[in-house]
Amino acid sequence: MNPWLMAARPATLLASIAPVLIGTASAWRDDVFALLPFVVVLLSALAIQIGVNFANDLADAARGADTEARIGPQRAVASGVITPRDMRRGMFIVFGIAGLGGIYLIWYAGWPIFVIGVVSIIAALGYTNGPIPYGYYGLGELFVFIFFGLVATAGTRYVFSDSVPAAVWAGGIVMGLLAAAILEVNNIRDIDTDRDATKRTLAVMLGRQRARKLYAATIIAAFVTIILSVGVGALPGMSLMALVVAPLGVPLVTTVFTETAGPPLIGVLKGTAQLQLFTGLFIALGMVF
């Protein structure tokens, strides 16, 4: 694989697409959709996540978290296929692309988009960088829930009109839970090497067995949220069609509980990202129809 594509971690990028679909579907439902803002939001969201992945690759290599003992995919900086200097440049380029998109969105939707963009990039850089990298202190899942769930979904909807209906917040909770599940399985896979590198992820703090239970509970909570949200009228009834993909979570949870090797858990990570995309797509379709 091209080293830059590898460093972008394409399997995880679905986490940026799904929230945008829900926010955009809400705009379509309320007849405030516009094509160009949708395209810019989507590209900017992808750029921010690629920047996050580049920053994570760079920081983990510097802190010794990506060693030869790691069972996950090869990391670009730690393996030497991209130099730290080039990775830093690449990170600033993709954040710059997100910033250019942000300038247009600020012009289109107003100054709150500036605040969302700046805070999102600061949070992205702070994940494994800075004096207190929160990803090293068991807070990664919380920040992923907030920024790849609530902020991404509500922020998308706000672009089209300065309001965020209850359905968008409900969808944002579902997206945040499934995005957190992606990080959870990633950290379960890396639990041994993260512990050795003193990277105190939530999985390291909980231990493998409890981390597995948290992953299962997170997947279940996402679909329970859909049912409850429809029940209280936050989501339209047609959004229940998202439950059709819930069985896809069963083999993912089973694998997490029975495997410790890298390839099966990498498959679970990819499967969880796909589960999030399909869930977001069906929630969005439920809003439109």
Write the layout of secondary structure elements.
Elements: H1 3-8, H2 14-29, H3 35-63, H4 76-79, H5 84-109, H6 112-126, H7 140-160, H8 166-189, H9 191-196, H10 202-206, H11 208-231, H12 249-258, H13 262-288
Biggest beta sheet summary = none
Q: What class do helices, strands and sheet pairing give?
A: mainly alpha
> How many structural domains can be distinguished in the coordinates?
1
What are the secondary-structure elements, in order, as H or E?
HHHHHHHHHHHHH
Describe the protein.
With 289 residues, this protein is an all-alpha fold. It has one domain.
Task: List descriptors.
mainly alpha; 13 helices
Overview in brief:
The chain is mainly α. It has 13 helices and no strands. Helix 2 runs antiparallel to helix 8, helix 3 packs antiparallel against helix 7 and helix 11 runs antiparallel to helix 12.
